[in-house]
């Protein structure tokens, strides 16, 4: 008898796509993905069940609380900002998660509020944590949100993970504990939150990008990325197809969700820098119209697009970073918040791109300098191609499927 596997995916498209890829790979199981309503068609088009989460990540980031959250300059202000961003929607989000997980035999969820632990305890079923960045304590490196702890030695680095977990739980604990007691019929999880020492962890990234620390326990599985391929029937817009055919490979530039005023300022600088360096560009923005050397594009599968570019300039989301590395093209990361600076640093240390350029520091002059470095240093392309060759040897979905078959 097949299991009902519920995958909680409350984030952006970069969080939802790996969950779809993972769900498609669970042969013999029925899979239900919980995500924002805007992803309904994306999920169901791949043959998976869907249940909506009323909290939309784009709306959250665009709110006053969301802007304060993303503008946090330290890990503490970032985590505190999380509460302000989620407070208006947290009650609805928890209600949706509870309703959408009904009947589950297995729950897969990110670390946000330890949702999987609460649902598993309520339903009497196992849960598995999904990690899109390294989040298990180790002495090998610091938590991605606390990079300064790298200099504190193994004990300090290990403590950085405990600190992030503790602060994140305290930020969300009032709403989550109330939900546990009133809706799930569970006691308070207390100051420390649920114990997670035995819970299996699936890390949806590659050992080629983040080498697995030797002190991680056996319950932590670095499976490789869960890539979602472009649909077989997908075809590019004729404008994009003709633009790609009309000259040398362009540089793709995209930074995810941005406020209109911010996008206009940023992409004005991007256009100027690209023209100074003499590069053609694909701009992932609605701001502006197409020109001979620049083309604005909408939603195009990165798996199809990135191999056709000369380089990628992006915000450093885990999914976009993975897609650029897999394509074997160099990239420049312009991080905004969260784990994005961490992924930018990984790209640099892997030799697949220059040092990150924080988006708030992006100007026509600063980007021109980075583009000259990005396009002129052949070692970046060699570094990206080396990582890509290793990623092609992996099948993250197959490895994750093998682990999940042993759960429960």
UniProtKB/TrEMBL annotation:
InterPro entries listed in its UniProt record: EryCIII-like_C, Glycosyltransferase_28, GlycoTrans_28_N, UDP_glucos_trans
Alphabetized GO MF terms: hexosyltransferase activity; UDP-glycosyltransferase activity
Transferase is among the record's keywords: no
Pathway: Antibiotic biosynthesis; vancomycin biosynthesis
Sorted UniProt keywords: Antibiotic biosynthesis
Residues in the signal sequence: none
One record GO biological process: carbohydrate metabolic process
Keyword Ion transport on entry: no
Domain Glycosyltransferase family 28 N-terminal: 5-57
Residues covered by the Erythromycin biosynthesis protein CIII-like C-terminal domain: 295-389
Top-level lineage group: Bacteria
Protein name per Swiss-Prot or TrEMBL: Uncharacterized protein
Organism: Amycolatopsis japonica
């Amino acid at each position: 008898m097949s299991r009902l596997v519920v995958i909680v995916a409350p984030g952006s498209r970069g969080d939802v796509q790996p969950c779809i890829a993972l769900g498609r790979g669970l042969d013999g199981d029925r899979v239900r993905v919980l995500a924002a309503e805007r992803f309904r068609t994306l999920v169901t088009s791949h043959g998976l069940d869907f249940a909506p989460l009323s909290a939309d990540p784009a709306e959250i980031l665009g709110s006053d609380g969301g802007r304060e959250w993303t503008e946090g300059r330290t890990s503490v202000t970032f985590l505190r900002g999380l509460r302000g961003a989620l407070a208006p929607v947290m009650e609805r989000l928890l209600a949706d998660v509870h309703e959408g997980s009904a009947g589950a035999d297995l729950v897969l969820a990110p670390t946000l509020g330890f949702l999987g632990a609460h649902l598993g305890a309520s339903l009497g079923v196992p849960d598995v944590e999904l990690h899109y960045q390294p989040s298990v304590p180790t002495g090998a490196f610091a938590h991605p949100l606390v990079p300064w702890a790298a200099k504190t030695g193994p004990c300090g680095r290990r403590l950085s993970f405990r600190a992030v977990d503790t602060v994140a739980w305290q930020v969300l604990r009032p709403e989550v504990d109330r939900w546990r007691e009133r809706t799930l019929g569970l006691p308070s999880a207390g100051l420390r939150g649920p114990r997670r020492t035995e819970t299996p962890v699936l890390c949806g990234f590659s050992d080629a990008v983040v080498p697995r620390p030797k002190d991680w326990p056996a319950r932590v599985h670095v499976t490789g990325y869960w890539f979602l391929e472009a649909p077989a029937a997908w075809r590019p817009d004729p404008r994009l197809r003709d633009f790609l055919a009309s000259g040398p490979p362009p540089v793709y530039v995209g930074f995810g969700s941005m406020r209109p005023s911010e996008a206009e300022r940023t992409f004005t600088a991007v256009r100027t820098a690209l023209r100074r360096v003499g590069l053609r560009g694909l701009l992932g923005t609605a701001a502006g119209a197409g020109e001979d050397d620049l083309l604005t594009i909408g939603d195009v599968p990165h798996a199809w697009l990135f191999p056709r570019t000369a380089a990628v300039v992006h915000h450093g989301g885990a999914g976009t970073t993975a897609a650029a590395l897999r394509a074997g093209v160099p990239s420049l990361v312009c991080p905004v918040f969260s784990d994005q600076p961490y992924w930018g640093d990984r790209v640099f240390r892997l030799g697949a791109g220059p040092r990150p350029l924080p988006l708030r520091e992006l100007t026509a002059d600063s980007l021109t300098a980075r583009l000259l470095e990005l396009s002129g240093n052949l070692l970046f392309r060699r570094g990206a191609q080396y990582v890509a060759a290793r990623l092609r040897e992996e099948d993250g979905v197959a490895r994750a499927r093998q682990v999940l078959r042993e759960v429960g």
